[in-house]
C-alpha cells in the first residue's frame, strides 16, 4: 500500500515538475532552489497541510507560509511587500485596490466551497432569523466575505445596514465578544464558525448561496516580473489542486484526521465538513476569464452601494492573464 502510494506521489510530483522545468530551463531544480515564495494562508494553513498529506510538498523552490486571520490581512501584507502570493475571497482585493495604486494582480481563481460562512447567535439567544437582528449588535469581519453576505442577508430580510449596530471585529475577537455578551450575533467564516458551534452557537443566516465560490490568488507585481517566481506560483497553485484531487480520490478519511487535529474538532465533524465541502464545490484552480472578473465586479458594486467604497471601482484594472499559460501547463 505504501509502495503504491509512493509511486503515485512520485508520478504526480513529476507531472507537476515538468511544466516548471520548461518555464525555468533545463536546470530548473538547481536554479529554482534559490527561488522563494512567501505565501499567505487563512485559518490553519490547510494548503500547506494538504500538500504534505498528498506528498506534493517537495517543491523545487522554497515556500514560506504565513498565517493570517483573514484574506483582508493577507492583502494588506501584499501591499506592504511582506507577501508574494495571497489567497482570499473576492472581497479583500477590492479594498486593497480601492486607492488606485495596487501593487498586485489577481492571477488565478480557486473554486471552493462556501460552507461555514454564517451569521451565528450565542447559546440561549432568542433570535431565530436575520429579521430578529434589527437593532442588535452584530460583529462582522470587515472587508471579507462576512461583510458581503451579512449585507446581502440583511437586504433579503428587508433590513438596511443602518438598522443594525454593525461592529467590525477580527474572528478571534468576534468569538470572544459573542461568548462574553458584547455582541448579539457574529458574521464570520471558517474555523471561527466551527469553534462558535462547538461553544453552542446556532446559525441564523448563511452565505452559502450568496457567495460565488471564487477564491482568488493575488500575486505581487514583483512576482509577475520574475519568470522563475511566476513559474513557481503557477506550479504551487496547480499542486494544491492536485492535492485536493488526491484527497477526493479515496483519501478523505486521512485528511479529515489532519483537519480535526489542526482545528480541534471531533473527527466525525471534520470528516462531514470536508465531505460536504468537496461535494458542494471541489477545490480546484482555473485560469482568469471574463466571467471571473465580472463576478468580482458585481461584488465591488455591492460595496459601492453599501457606501464602503467611495466611488465605482473597475476591478479589471487589477486582474491579469499573465499566469494563464503557465497555470494551464501545470494543471
Number of domains: 2
Order of helices and strands: HHEHEHEHEEEHEHEHEEHHHHEHH
Which consecutive residue ranges, at least 5 long each, have pLDDT under 50?
Answer: 1-32
Let me know the largest β-sheet. Answer: 5 strands, mixed
- Count of individual helical segments: 14
Task: Provide key terms for this protein.
disordered N terminus, 331 residues, 11 strands, 14 helices, 18% strand, D-Maltodextrin-Binding Protein, domain 2, globular, five-stranded mixed sheet, 2 domains, alpha/beta
Layout of strands and helices, then pairs:
Layout: H1 2-24, H2 28-32, E1 36-42, H3 46-53, E2 62-68, H4 71-79, E3 85-88, H5 91-96, E4 104-111, E5 117-121, E6 137-140, H6 145-156, E7 165-168, H7 171-180, E8 185-189, H8 190-198, E9 202-206, E10 214-220, H9 221-224, H10 227-248, H11 252-263, H12 267-280, E11 284-286, H13 290-306, H14 324-330
Parallel strand pairs: 1-2, 6-7, 6-8
Antiparallel strand pairs: 3-10, 4-10, 4-11, 5-8, 5-9
Helix pairs in contact: 1-10, 3-10, 3-11, 10-14, 11-12
Write a structural description:
Helix 3 crosses helix 10, helix 3 runs antiparallel to helix 11 and helix 10 crosses helix 14. The chain has 331 residues and is an alpha/beta fold. Helix 3 links the parallel strand 1 and strand 2. 46% of the residues are buried. It contains 14 helices and 11 strands. The chain has 2 domains: 230 residues, 3-Layer(aba) Sandwich (D-Maltodextrin-Binding Protein, domain 2), CATH 3.40.190.10; 90 residues, D-Maltodextrin-Binding Protein, domain 2.
